[in-house]
C-alpha cells in the first residue's frame, strides 16, 4: 500500500550511498513509513535514531541552542542522518562514501515538507 | 533502584533490559499471577496488585484474540498521559511468562519493543535446563507461593 510519504522517501533513497530512509515518530520510536534494503532491521534503526534525535533536541534546548535542524552520527562504515519537524523525524542511513552535503540538503527539504 | 528476582537466572536479563530500555518499572510473573522478578517497586502490595491485574489483562487479551483472530493476542500497549505500559508474553523452555513494564518520556514504545525482544532472547538463553513446572500452579499452593515470592523480593524471606 502506498503512503503519502513514499515519494519523499523514494527521492532520498535515490541519492548515492543512501541505503535506507525512514519516517519515524520521535515520541514513540516507531516507523511510520520506510524504504529499506533487504535484510535491514528498520524497527531497530527507527527506535534508536528516534531516541538519539529526541536526546539531541533536549540537549540543544538545555544548552539554549534552539531547535535541532540536522543530526549526523558518523560511524566506521557509514552515517545515520536525521532531520525532524514537529514529532516526526526523517532518517537516512548512508555509506561512508555518500555525498553528505547533498543528503543534508535533501533531508532538511524533506523535513520542511512534513505536515 | 535495584532489580530483584526469585530465581537468580532471571536477574541479569531483567537488569539489562531495565538499563537499556530506560524503563521505570518492570515485572516478570507467571500466568497465574505469581511474581518472579521486579524492578522499581518499593511495596510488596503494589507488586501483588500489579501481578494480579497483569495476569488478568493477559488472560483477557488472550481470550479476546482467540475470539477475534483465532489465536491469542500476545502483547498490549497502553499510553497514558505521562507514562506508558507494555505487557507481553515471554516464552522460554521453562514455560511462558508475562512481562509488564512501565516507562515515561525517557524511553519510547519502539525502544521498549526492541529491547523486549532482546530480553526474551536473553531470558531464554539463561533459563536453566530442567522440568520446573512453572505453569502448573496448584490452587492450594497459590497463596503460599505468592507470599513466599513477595517475601523473597522484598527481603523478608
Describe the structure.
The complex is a heterodimer of chains A (115) and B (157). Chain A is of the alpha+beta class and 115 residues long. Helices cover 37% and strands 31% of the residues of chain A. Chain A is built from three helices and five strands. Chain A has helices spanning 6-13, 42-62, 100-112; strands at residues 18-25, 30-36, 71-75, 78-85, 88-95. Chain A has a five-stranded antiparallel β-sheet, with helices on both faces. The radius of gyration of chain A is 13 Å and the shape is globular. Chain B is an alpha+beta fold and 157 residues long. In chain B, 46% of the residues lie in helices and 23% in strands. Chain B is built from four helices and six strands. Classes of the chains: A alpha+beta (115), B alpha+beta (157). The A-B interface holds A 24-25, 27-30, 43-44, 46-48, 50-51, 54 and B 107-111, 113-114.
What would you say about this model in short?
Chain A is α+β, with helices and mostly antiparallel strands.
